[in-house]
């Protein structure tokens, strides 16, 4: 039995892109985190003030009574006080200044709505560390890193702002967030409807949990993006894994691969090949997430519609040799990693930073944010891997000393039974793999889905661009229309209420 | 400064009826707990099965991964499966068998609704002790005693029942609770609307928190109950405190008082007098809570409309002497403590049991359930006492090593801003002091208040009685009508939903 367990653990290690091997990070965790860590600059400079708010470390227990400084950024340049609305970004797993600088949508609509902007940092990320440098030291210090605590932070912060900022007392607040931040904004409206009048949850996979959507949908969307971006593009990538296995089976092949991909550290053994394939898989996923219609500077600078550019190198027919195929894959990878030509070599362990963002999201994935993923190599272009919860759990236990609870997110946030809530917009991009776990059809007249067929990961939250497709322009217009309706209704309710 | 702090602490000690002096329990805590501990027998015998469910000790953190056995009682005698409704009692601060045996309303309507009954015990009470006999040993073990954890217990339990009981998968669940259990049922619907389709919150003072209602309203209602139950009844009690002070100022007076009240332990000093007055104050409050229209056996057996009986002994004019007045008070107290004539003496420390129920509610009052109370001696019949949060906090810290958070309940449960929720009935009795913190007018078409002018504390949840006033009969009928509507709508929604 022990052997079997080990085998299963190993299998999951592949699926999870080796969560416990720090040199390659868990793919599904990675995705979110990457987003938090995008170091590109926003188009116009933004101006805000930075504040710190004393938050309870534990909202749900009274033994730990300490506080920490939660960072938040505030811009009131266009705020029409008293009573002007507040757009509140529910920060996700990264430095809040990144989200602030890169959520152009909020900056672009502040003036027309007369809105104050607030960007609140998520605990355990950026500067908002409950125990300072010790925050990640062990599972005891990590114990307060949960979405529930983060939502409570947001609620307490907003109630404090409304109580302390002159003119804010009756300001309707709207939650805005993307990706995990979008999940938070939706959940925030569900759990604290007395605090926010509505929420925009952009590219928020609130259903990417156990039993809610098929575990293979995520990678199917990635595959579809490549399939439609060039002749045989997905088929070539599907073939590439075996080609890598074939070529890497000899020492000379390993050397050839290392040189062809201009790897900083040459491949030496099976483990390196595993890492190498995980790194490539992650590259294709990232490309799917950031397949934007204009040149942008993300983790790497990229051309417009980057998958189309990548696919130019992957348009092979069935007769292609392993070496020819992998030359194409190499060229394709370099579009992502060396578009500007300034990278002397490619680093397959580059995702293995010690960034708090990464580690924090790992922990969250290992506790509440259990998102089953799988591939079959048929409906997607990846090597087949089943979802193995037990092995995943064992890896989490080895890494953090905690075990994930597969059903908790559904139990606490309602899963698919959310129809009694109101005033949430779920926007999703048709190109975005995370749409797999998103709300992509209307649930009620006030739980609305907006699809952006040509959009990748929360395109609608980005600055507008001349190359934006009409679908994202329409989405933004609809979102602002809903904001106005929520604000109007909130003001009406307030004015009608008796004073007390 | 130290003297001043001591003074303030002493002042609060009076208000709180000496939370830190275990010989007299905190009044406002006491009230709830008493309810949990009512050892009277229900009219018809009830039949249920007892089960235990493995609950996570901590739903909101992953370091503590242990489980405990949560007790719940189940009766499916009248359940129409598949899909028949489930009436779910959200247990409060006491042994669940007490609530089960004494919530006759649920037993009486089970057949007509074809409903299963479930009574879930609140963690840290009855047999549902997260750490067994150590559960109350210190603040570390008490750390998981919160309403949020209790609500999560209920949600997880229901989802498990629906997943495991054949025929229950699509059963609509309705939460029912009284007093603190009513607060839980309302909050349960607010926070877990995907789990319960509606809630009956009977005598649930969800607004008895800081800044929501005047702190003196509670004791005003107690006073009104006495004022309308006999000539000068409230005035006599208002005078009695000074009379006690006067009489007890001499050794012979102390002795007289002890004999007149047939006290088991004679009064000896100022501290005893303080305890004595607290005990009397609590007696009047308890009478107001249980001022039912029929003879009932509560903490003590009582006649119908007990305050009217009590007031017969308190109908004095202004010329009454201190001794005459206190003779009346003594007779009045004996209605409450010795109606059957079987008590050889009265015990002013009788509330100082080591019952877990008491201690648990003390802890909850010292953390989340901070309910400011005050008296002014003018609009109420008690000695004037201001609410002093700091002193209260200091006492909590001395007792449990934790400090209360005055604003948390409002922040997490919405305070008065609950209009976006739905399907909650708030029923309140006009005689019940806890109506002071209740929802006593409609908030929306589906957040409905039902007033029972002649009702004391959650009369509607009790077995029906020939002497029930029409108002409580009408209330119960309205409640059942709403239950039927919620059930009907839930079934419709379920049938209309696509299968997945």
From TrEMBL, chains A, B:
Gene Ontology cellular component list: lysosome
Main localization of the protein described in the UniProt heading: other
Superkingdom of this protein's organism: Eukaryota
Enzyme Commission designation: 3.4.16.2
Transmembrane segments: none
Reaction(s) this enzyme catalyzes, per UniProt: Cleavage of a -Pro-|-Xaa bond to release a C-terminal amino acid
One GO MF term: dipeptidyl-peptidase activity
Entry's Gene Ontology BP terms: angiogenesis involved in wound healing; negative regulation of systemic arterial blood pressure; proteolysis; regulation of blood vessel endothelial cell migration
UniProt signal peptide: 1-26
Location in the cell: Lysosome
UniProt keyword Chaperone, yes or no: no
InterPro entries with a match to the protein in the record: AB_hydrolase_fold, Peptidase_S28, Ser_carbopepase_S28_SKS
UniProt keyword terms in alphabetical order: Carboxypeptidase, Disulfide bond, Glycoprotein, Hydrolase, Lysosome, Protease, Signal, Zymogen
Record family assignment: Belongs to the peptidase S28 family.
Job of this protein: Cleaves C-terminal amino acids linked to proline in peptides such as angiotensin II, III and des-Arg9-bradykinin. This cleavage occurs at acidic pH, but enzymatic activity is retained with some substrates at neutral pH.
Complexes and interactors: Homodimer.
Protein name: Lysosomal Pro-X carboxypeptidase
């Amino acid at each position: 039995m022990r052997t079997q367990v080990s085998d299963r653990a190993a299998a999951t290690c592949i699926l999870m892109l080796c969560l416990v091997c720090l040199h390659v990070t868990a793919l599904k965790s990675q995705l979110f985190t990457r987003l938090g860590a995008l170091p590109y600059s926003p188009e116009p400079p933004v101006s805000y003030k930075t504040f710190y708010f004393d938050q309870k470390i534990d909202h749900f227990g009274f033994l730990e009574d300490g506080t920490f400084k939660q960072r938040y950024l505030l811009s009131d340049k266009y705020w029409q006080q008293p009573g002007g609305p507040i757009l509140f970004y529910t920060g996700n797993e990264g430095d809040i200044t990144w989200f602030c600088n890169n959520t152009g949508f909020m900056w672009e609509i502040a003036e027309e709505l007369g809105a104050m902007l607030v960007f609140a940092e998520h605990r355990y990320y950026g500067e908002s560390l409950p125990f300072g440098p010790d925050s990640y030291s062990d599972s005891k210090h990590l114990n307060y890193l949960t979405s529930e605590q983060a939502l409570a932070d947001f609620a307490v912060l907003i109630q404090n702002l409304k109580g302390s900022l002159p003119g804010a007392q009756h300001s309707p607040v709207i939650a805005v967030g993307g990706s995990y931040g979008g999940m938070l904004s939706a959940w925030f409206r569900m759990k604290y409807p007395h605090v926010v009048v509505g929420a925009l949850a952009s590219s928020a996979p609130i259903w990417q949990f156990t039993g809610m959507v098929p575990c293979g949908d995520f990678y199917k969307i990635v595959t579809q993006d490549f399939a439609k971006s060039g002749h045989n593009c997905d088929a070539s990538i599907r073939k590439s894994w075996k080609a890598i296995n074939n070529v890497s089976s000899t020492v000379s092949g390993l050397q050839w691969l290392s040189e062809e991909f201009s790897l900083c550290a040459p491949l030496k053994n099976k483990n390196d090949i595993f890492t190498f394939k995980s790194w490539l898989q992650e590259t294709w996923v990232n490309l799917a997430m950031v397949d934007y219609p204009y040149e942008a500077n993300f983790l790497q600078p990229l051309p417009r519609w980057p998958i189309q550019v990548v696919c130019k190198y992957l348009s092979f027919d069935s007769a292609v040799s392993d070496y020819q195929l992998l030359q194409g894959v190499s060229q394709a990878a370099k579009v992502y990693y060396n578009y500007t030509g300034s990278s002397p070599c490619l680093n397959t362990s580059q995702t293995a930073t010690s960034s708090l963002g990464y580690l924090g999201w790992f922990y969250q994935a290992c506790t509440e944010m259990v998102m089953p993923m799988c591939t079959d190599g048929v409906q997607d272009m990846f090597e087949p891997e089943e979802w193995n919860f037990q092995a995943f759990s064992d890896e989490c236990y080895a890494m953090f000393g905690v075990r994930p609870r597969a059903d908790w997110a559904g139990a606490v946030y309602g899963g698919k039974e959310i129809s009694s809530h109101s005033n949430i917009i779920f926007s999703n991009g048709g190109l975005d793999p995370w749409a797999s776990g998103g709300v992509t059809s209307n649930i009620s007249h006030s739980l609305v889905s907006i699809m952006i067929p040509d959009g990748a990961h929360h395109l609608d939250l980005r600055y507008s661009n001349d190359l934006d497709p009409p679908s994202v322009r329409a989405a933004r217009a609809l979102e602002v229309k809903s904001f106005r309706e929520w604000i109007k209704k909130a003001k009406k309710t307030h004015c009608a209420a008796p004073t007390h």
